[in-house]
TrEMBL record:
Residue ranges crossing the lipid bilayer per the database entry: 21-40, 52-79, 91-112, 132-156, 176-195
Signal peptide start-end: none
UniProt KW Membrane keyword: yes
UniProt KW Membrane keyword: yes
Protein name: Sulfatase
Keyword field: Membrane, Transmembrane, Transmembrane helix
Pfam families the record matches: DUF3413
Biological classification of the source: Bacteria, Pseudomonadati, Pseudomonadota, Gammaproteobacteria, Alteromonadales
Residues in Inner membrane protein YejM N-terminal domain copies: 9-248
Amino acid sequence: MNLTPQSPFSSKASQLLSWGHWFTFANIGLVLLISISYLLADKPPTSALGGFYMLITWLSHTSFITFCAFVLTIFPLSLVFPYPRHIRGMAALLATCGISTLSLDAFVYFQLGYHLNIQALPEILSLLWGKFSVSPILVSVLAVGFILAVFVFELLAGNRAWRHLAELKQYRFPKYATAILVSCFATSHSIHIWADANAYFDVTKQDNILPLSYPTTAKTLLARHDLLDIKQYEQARDISLTNAQSQFAFNRPLPKCLPQNEIPATVVVFEQHAALTAFANKYQLQPTAQLLQPSDHNDAIFNLVYGLPAYYKSAMSQNEQPPWSSEGQLVSVSGLSFIDDIDVKEAPIKIISANQLNTDKNIEGPVIAFSLAPHSTDIVYNGMFYSNYFDAVDQPTFKQLHDIMYTLVASHLGCPQLATSTMLGRDLKHSISNEGVNYTQGVLVAFRKDRITLVSQDGSYKNVSGTEGFAIDQKLDIPFLINNIKVLKKFSSQKHTP
């Protein structure tokens, strides 16, 4: 084959390669626009360095994967099959497939908190089917319309670049843009190496945001050259909870709570789900899905009554009243196997076992009812509760038992400061947070969207889908866990410093 500079084959291949670079630049702009959704899916960095790192990583990484897609697809095709019209058509099809896949991944990450992967396929399909079933025609039109719009963009970009190739070759823009992107790529990896070595989590917490993102880490690189103190590094990243016998400490005096609602709220605890369903039908209670509770009944009851994870259970063993109720006698508890009765007449919040419930007597005011988890080997159980109080029925986030008590104190009693001062939870009537933390059976439970991370005291961990229960193949998110441990130890006298 004659590949001299004068041969028509070589000339077409050279022109196609030049055209391919401009076609890739057009797609980089589109990819950058779509990938903004990844940055909006999680909380933004809190420091200037974290924000700068996010910006340059977004520019460089998205540009890099787009260029790699060109090198792996259009580049070899241009050499083997240098026919401009066919190459432009195939390039438009390939780019449309790539952009569509990226958009799907961005949607999944925004909704579930993880990228496309085989292990999460059931949950991803469930998410897509749920969106489709709500409005099939609208979703179909939007999906097909988006794909067609991308395909038209690819055809227009490819044809325009080919027709104006001679004019585009005179521009110096590619040199400057390439220099900026390469500089951003090198700078972002350098910052990540430093941040990983110094446990600067505002940078390293961004590791899993962008797709196919595997930044250079410091541990192996610096340790290989004897530039890293391994003990100091491991201490900074320590997430151990082996000494979980913590004292409960809060600021006194506590905010005074004068209940703003005279009608008491009643929480009914069932042991069997069938009995719960019958009760809910009788009182016309509405179901609220995704109640994430410990499978250990003792820990679950502690979460509900005290508004705290079981991390503080040993510190509360001698307390008759929960801390949030101790100043005003705000709760009565009766019939629960795992906690002594608390007899307070006219208490504004009543927690009662279904076994002691007088079914002949009407219950006034807010009612919340749930059943304890069935006996299983799982650490946590994803169920539901019923109520006539919560308007957070359609929120696609996990709720916990200590969230229920927090909400009753903050919203029903009108004492948000008391709830914040004594409990770990969120107000389900006002909060839209999709993160939470718990501790049960010696296991740290932290969730974000659908992903639940379980970390045992020996350091072993696993990520699972909270909805479906299957394992997710994803590395341990150290910054996410550090932040959750800080939340867990909010009232601990043993301060945790990452």
